[in-house]
Automatic annotation (TrEMBL):
HAMAP family named among the record's database cross-references: Ycf3
GO BP annotation list: photosynthesis
InterPro entries given in the database record: PSI_Ycf3_assembly, TPR-like_helical_dom_sf, TPR_rpt
Keyword line: Chloroplast, Membrane, Photosynthesis, Plastid, Repeat, Thylakoid, TPR repeat
Recorded topology in the membrane: Peripheral membrane protein
TPR repeats: 35-68, 72-105, 72-105, 120-153
Compartments (UniProt record): Plastid membrane; Plastid, Chloroplast thylakoid membrane
Source species taxonomy: Eukaryota, Viridiplantae, Streptophyta, Embryophyta, Tracheophyta
Protein name: Photosystem I assembly protein Ycf3
UniProt-listed SUPFAM superfamilies: TPR-like
Amino acid sequence: MPRSQKNDNFIDKTFTIVADILLQIIPMASGEKEAFTYYRDGMSAQSEGEYAEALQNYYEAMRPEIDPYDRSYILYNIGLIHTSNGEHTKALEYYFQALERNPSLPQALNNTALICHYRGEQAIRQGDPEIAEAWFDQAAEYWKQAIALAPSNYIEAQNWLQITGRFGE
């Protein structure tokens, strides 16, 4: 049974009904409809913590999806799952692929910065301040790009940049 038929709560059911109606009335190529259906099911599975199912749906959505902008969001969501699973190297690969297709994706820049910052903190705990500074500098660059795209978002990152003196660099 497709995930779209398994939704238990009212909001998910309502969204699914509206999405199904839109799929029927909006002129789209069959590949676009197929990609959207897999993407929607992937998002639903991801929101329920069913990461393996979500990944399977996202990979299926990538096959028929040709629009770079739409592919960027699929790749971003795959990156989110790898981040949640602690697979930061894989997550970065997917965030970078998403950014190649859509450089104006501030959430991918933010998540990339978060991983760099985390690695900087790890380096401090391991007693390697030079490596930590390199990671923190990299995090700062990604956060500055994210903030340039979405100035009212990422307030904590803005504060960190100011406190550490990296905002004006």
